[in-house]
Write a structure and sequence with these properties.
Strand content: 15-25%
Order of helices and strands: HEEEHEHEHEEHHHHEHHEEEH
Radius of gyration: 19 Å
Helix content: 40-55%
Length: 263
């Protein structure tokens, strides 16, 4: 979804690598409540306009509610755990490792997470389309390096554990915490899996949901007349939105080259 922010700003962007999607790594927690419907009328602390905000919108929609039924309170991720410990904060939306730390508190119940919207919160390596076209070797180098690291991450070798330990420290947790995050993330360690996801029939529907969220929040720009203002192109040649204003391109070319051993 962060890529659409660039596209909405007029930057022609290519999704070079689809790395994974959140499959439980982002969630909604209520204090002293056990059902999502009980969020109605509450203040909800989250990082505004982030994937947490998107998750909230999709969760509310799943139970016939909307953001009009709650009040969003913009809260930085650095302040989220401290905020939850105060008596006036009763609902938060966040991601790991913060999510697991808050969920561990005895008055906390996770009532919805990204496993409820699989394939929608995507982590993607984005590049400037013009730069990629002019420098295909740049695309090959990035893609090759990506899958070398992915293979290392997936390994239980000492080198793999060392790599994940370093990544854990960089993200503010330990190896066990990082491995727990990976367990709630659908990782595309193999390029063929990323290609299959990129070419799936579900991806255009996800981009429609994202576009509607961005339009509702004004992120597509003041002049955007509808969620379809920005065009999104897919590997099969189809386009969601305006085909004359394509600014986001899901292209399987380099991932397919990696799958074929042709980098």
């Amino acid at each position: 979804m962060r890529s659409r922010f660039l596209a909405g700003g007029g930057v022609d962007t290519t999704a070079l690598i689809v790395g994974d999607y959140s499959n439980g790594n982002d969630g909604i927690i209520l204090k002293d409540k056990g059902k999502l419907q009980e969020i109605k009328g509450q203040n909800v602390n989250l990082v505004e306009l982030s994937v947490s905000h998107y998750l909230l919108a999709r969760a509310l929609d799943s139970v016939g509610m909307s953001e009009r039924d709650v009040t969003v309170v913009n809260t930085s991720d650095a302040d989220m755990i401290a905020a939850y410990s105060t008596s006036d904060v009763t609902s938060v939306v966040t991601w790991n490792p913060l999510l697991s730390e808050i969920e561990a508190q005895k008055n906390a119940t996770k009532v919805f997470d990204s496993a409820g919207i699989p394939g929608e919160i995507i982590d993607v390596m984005m590049v400037n389309t013009e730069t990629l076209a002019a420098n295909p070797s740049f695309g090959k180098a990035l893609t090759g390096a990506w899958y070398e690291v992915a293979a290392l991450m997936a390994s239980d070798s000492p080198e793999g554990k060392a790599a994940r330990t370093a990544m854990a420290e960089a993200s503010g947790t330990d190896l066990a915490g990082y491995d727990a995050q990976l367990a709630t993330t659908e990782m595309f360690y193999k390029p063929a899996d990323a290609v299959a996801f990129n070419q799936s029939k579900e991806l255009p529907q996800t981009m429609k949901f994202v576009a509607e969220f961005l339009f509702d929040k004004g992120i597509l720009g003041e002049g955007a007349p509808s969620p379809e203002f920005v065009g999104v192109a897919f590997p099969d040649g189809s386009v969601y939105g305006d085909p004359n204003n394509v600014k986001l391109r899901f292209d399987s070319t380099y991932m397919q080259m990696a799958a074929d051993g042709a980098l």
